[in-house]
Amino acid sequence: MPDRTIDFGKYGARGIKGHQAVARRLDALAGYIATPITARRGLLARLHYLTRTDHARTAARAAGLTATPRTIRAWLAGTRSPSRASLAAIEQAYRTVRRENVARYLLARLNRDGRGTRVEIHPLDQSGVFHPHQRVVAFRTMNVRRWDRIIAAWAADDDAALDEAWVDQVVDLGSQWGQYEYVTNIGFAA
Fold it and tell me: pTM for the whole thing?
């Protein structure tokens, strides 16, 4: 078996990379604001999150929110509306700051003092694969005890580092780990 899948989907299999499924699940656990930023309520909630304290304002600036305090006050008061570029910057800064704030909590919950967290790996979807080319890929569970690199890469929004950190954990599945490089879903709770 090669180290990584070379030509995924050639015969019609569908799925996403395992680290992308992990990032999706961690995003769900982070508890982002559900109201879209295009709604006034969603915009105000994000701006309040990013500007409530000095620490939040500093983190928002570091995350790329470059609007002046006067402009932010006008947005909060409703006298001015942010442009599309500003909305995108606000959303990106909010997600970055939220990930940084939640990362330490998630790390403690997932590591559980060295006991780790049970992870369910749902295999790739082979419904579009012609029968002779299908292979048996079963639902798997594993216990991940070391979440440090995964959480750090997720919080930094570093896709390559998250991929490497996830593959280091999946290798614990043994010689079949390559079958779980692409999955339909990965589930765990914190």
Answer: 0.85
